[in-house]
Amino acid sequence: MNKIQMVDLKGQYSKIKNVVDASIAEVLDNTAYINGPKVHEFQKNLEQYLGVKHVIPCANGTDALQIAMMGLNLKPGDEVITADFTFAATVEVIALLQLTPVLVDVDPDTFNIDIDAIKKAITPKTKAIVPVHLFGQCANMEAIMAIAKEHNLYVIEDNAQAIGATYTYADGTKAKAGTIGHVASTSFFPSKNLGCYGDGGAIFTNDDDLAHYIRGIVNHGMYERYHHDVVGVNSRLDSIQAAVLDAKLPHLDDYNKARIKAANAYDTAFKGHENIITPHREGDEDNHVFHQYTLKVKGADRDALVKHLGEKGIPCGVYYPIPLHLQKAYKDSRYNEEDFAVTNQLVKEVISLPMHTELDDEQIEFITSAVINFVNSNL
Ligand SMILES: *Cc1c(COP(=O)(O)O)cnc(C)c1O
User: Fold this and answer.
1) Which domains does the chain have, with CATH numbers?
2) Could you count the other beta carbons within 10 Å of the beta carbon of residue 119?
């Protein structure tokens, strides 16, 4: 059996080495390392893939979130609602811009932001909601957009984990994750579903004026060379990373299918086990592209399971071990513990198993047997 990895970047690269190498070689040859033609090509190809009017590439997914919020002209003191159970980048940029983060609980099944909790958290100061499509599954965008419309709020989708997922509305219409809110951000961190070989990110929007404004923000606030109209940042996707991404983009749907196939195999192996709760999926199969495959373990010691799997050569992850509202940087006396019952429980139960495009049946059998055997003998 091949060594099990949390993410197998080398195995994936070996299958597309020729195209990736050729794409990088083009950049080395034309030396347009910054804002070269590859960046523009990738931008156009991603716009077409997503069915969105504007993709604005930038340096990473955290910058993408920050720049999206700068683009909306949110002001210090504006309240921004987001999930307690997500990667810290989401709340970090809210705080960095001196906006007021309002963390709310998540749904115990989908792990995504809880709709009733959003409603409860809205005040006259609320300006935006940031749903995170956690672990690759679309948040309940239809309900979120309805709340936003009613209260005149912006919706910023944090799509770092769900690129390529397809959201289906109640009437059957479909839209790619990241094209539904007013603006969205994504990350091309190597382990993400569409990853480059370094850092990268992008902002998506269908709003022409916002796109124009943001294109200036990412470039020192310039709309005309050496005319700095607004306070901006320097955040660029470099041409070599764009070359990697442009070579990988045509494979994204197949990569996501491979992840769904691995998730299905995991589901089958754990089916019916009372103490191993497999990820709940909403909607059609392409609604969840499995950035992570995350179980809830009931009745057995999750941390002991992590240790046991590690000893058997099975890497796994705990995303996320601490609720954001309990992190030193984001603690706030406004929060009440009883409002975070779900997140407080999830941090004790979740475990993410190896998930990538190169997992084979033998590896999945080895992993699932190890999990089941441990849980059965430690209840
Ligand atoms: C990865 C990630 C980010 C940040 O992306 P970087 O490219 O690492 O800055 C933001 N939000 C979520 C939910 C993520 O998973």
Assistant:
1) 9-250 (3.40.640.10), 251-377 (3.90.1150.10)
2) 14
